[in-house]
Amino acid sequence: MNRTISAEGASTLVEAVRARTSLLVAAIPRMAGKSTLLRAALEAGGASVHELSRRLPDLGIPRTLDDSYLLVSEFAPTPFADYLWGDDLRRVFEAAAEGRPLGATMHAPEIATAFALLFGANGVPDAQLSRIAVYVQIEVFGPWWEPERRVVSSIERVDGVSGGRPTTTVLHRWIEGEDRFETL
How does pLDDT run across 46-88, given as a tens digit for each residue? Predict the structure, then answer.
């Protein structure tokens, strides 16, 4: 391991993918490793994916239900075709509510902010937000363009959502002062 994630944390993500649960990976800076971590978990868990984009009809969401992940490069209000926001983001959550697993990344400093953006800025209802079963937070040390270290600071199970506010159970966390990972 490169001290980014504990073996137990990595195992939790792989098992979550094998169970076809939806995951959201967040961090603030660019180049934090959000997409890399998500794709590694999906690959290790044996998941197939439908990469979503505004360049594709209906964003690339298949008409028939299968157990492949709907993969969103990032939830963000940008002109990039693979970054989804607003109506497109809501369409992804509607498709996930039909039983499709979702894998996505976004910029957020912690879970409350991430869910507030999805709920408040995008209008995703609680029931659909509750489809996110696992939330992963990454911290970056050093300048974003040349980080000294990236750390999965927490992995949380989302137990429910009310008014856009998630109730969670922390499964794994990094204790910065001791530079060690803890499984709860």
Answer: 999 999 999 999 999 999 989 899 999 999 999 999 999 999 9
Give this prediction's pTM.
Answer: 0.95
* The pLDDT of residue 2: 67
Task: Tell me if residue 67 falls in helix, strand or coil.
Answer: coil
Q: Which helix (H) or strand (E) holds 74?
A: strand 69-75
Asked if 31 and 3 count as a contact pair (C-beta separation under 8 A), the reply is no
Domain annotation covers residue 138: yes
For residue range 14-51, list pLDDT tens digits in order.
999 999 999 999 999 787 889 999 999 999 999 999 99
Within a domain: 160: yes
CB 53, CB 82: distance < 8 Å: yes
Please indicate, yes or no, if residue 1 is contained in any of the structural domains.
no
CA-atom Rg of the chain in angstroms: 15
H/E segment holding residue 92: helix 87-97
> Does residue 125 sit in helix, strand or coil?
coil
Helices 7-18, 34-44: axis angle to 10 degrees equals 60
Q: CB count, 10 Å around CB of 80?
A: 11
Among 181, 184, 147, smallest CA distance to 7 is for 181
